[in-house]
Amino acid sequence: MATSYIPCLFVFAILAIGVALAGSCEKPSIKSSVYTAADAHFSNHGIVSATFNVQCANKAASSSMDVYAVFRGRAVQAAQDLDSSQYQVTFSEPVKTYLPAGGYAIDLYDEDGYAQYRKAQRGEAGKSSVPEPMARIEFEYPRVRHSLWVHSETVAVLLLLGASFYAYSARKSILS
Amino acid sequence: MSQLTACAFLIGLVIFTCGAAADSDGGAQLIGVKSIANNLIVKGMDVTVQYDIYNVGDKAAMNVQLEEDGFPIDYFAVRSGFQHVRWTRLPPGANVSHTLILTPLQTFVFNASHAVMRYKVSDEATGSTVGYTTSPGEIAVIETADYDRQFSAHAMDWLTFGMMTTPSIIIPFLLWYASVRKYSNLASHSSRKNN
């Protein structure tokens, strides 16, 4: 009777190993595009929105995996598009207190990597260093644009007043 | 006395059962806020639609889906982002953000309505719960020319104006300046002669 369970256990073990392997992405390759918005006059939020797709060597992991993004210490789960299986992650802050211009990077983790990242953040024993991300998206954030401090009409009026004052002074000196 | 004891036991049992039932009714509850991040909405310039979803329940929301079908393709082109997205899990007390970048193709007044959220209130739930985000309401898309008239620097306009008016100002000025130099030189020359 006991021997009849052995094939079932063997099949179950194989399935369990398969499920575990499908959860982690082997040799990931990322194609990404990043949209940034940094116009304080036009918008009230600075936006960093990255869309990307993940290709894994083990194809089963590509379509079913959860991806987590970490940007400047903030971790979120990436949203997955229902139509195309691409991912999107968004970070936004009020534009006046947002990022200085320069190069930035978004770190991507799969489920296992994110679990290790969280353990490192909590400072658990033996997990003091942040794990290497599965992939990294690098982008340039532009300088925040503000509305004009002085309008061109004001400059034109000031120039006109200056020219008028010069002409009046010259006329006065001639008449005197 | 035995009847009193029995009544107290029954009342206690009822209270315990009701409390247990209340605990088992807890689940995820999502609140969605849909907003337009722009101060101005101009034809041909990007509009940022931001969605913030908060889980105010006491369990993780599972298989959270956000569906946005309120921007027809005749009026808006998608510049970046996706309109149907999914998160596997949203823990209690957590929130996620999502953005959709659109470009208005026409000048009109548009009524931005709500987006739809579907999620399971717990891991054990069998059916999905449907919720709705807030609605930004009416948004007016203005013409590009109106935006430029009001907010652009008009530097080229002023430069053109300056070039057109310069001849009528510079030519008399040069004539006057040449005359002043000539007669001031003559005056200083004659005063030196007299001395």
UniProtKB/TrEMBL annotation, chain A:
Keyword hit for Transmembrane helix: yes
GO cellular component, one term: endoplasmic reticulum membrane
Family, as annotated: Belongs to the TRAP-delta family.
Quaternary structure, from the entry: Heterotetramer of TRAP-alpha, TRAP-beta, TRAP-delta and TRAP-gamma.
Membrane topology: Single-pass type I membrane protein
Matches recorded under InterPro entries: TRAP-delta (IPR008855)
Location of this chain's protein in the cell: Endoplasmic reticulum membrane
Main localization category: endoplasmic reticulum
Keywords: Disulfide bond, Endoplasmic reticulum, Isopeptide bond, Membrane, Signal, Transmembrane, Transmembrane helix, Ubl conjugation
Protein name according to UniProt: Translocon-associated protein subunit delta
Keyword Disulfide bond: yes
Top-rank taxon: Eukaryota
Automatic annotation (TrEMBL), chain B:
Signal listed as a keyword: yes
Top-level division of the source organism's lineage: Eukaryota
Cited Pfam families: TRAP_beta
Gene Ontology annotations for the cellular component aspect, listed alphabetically: endoplasmic reticulum
Keyword annotations: Membrane, Signal, Transmembrane, Transmembrane helix
N-terminal signal peptide: 1-22
Sequence intervals crossing the membrane: 158-178
Protein name (Swiss-Prot/TrEMBL): Translocon-associated protein subunit beta
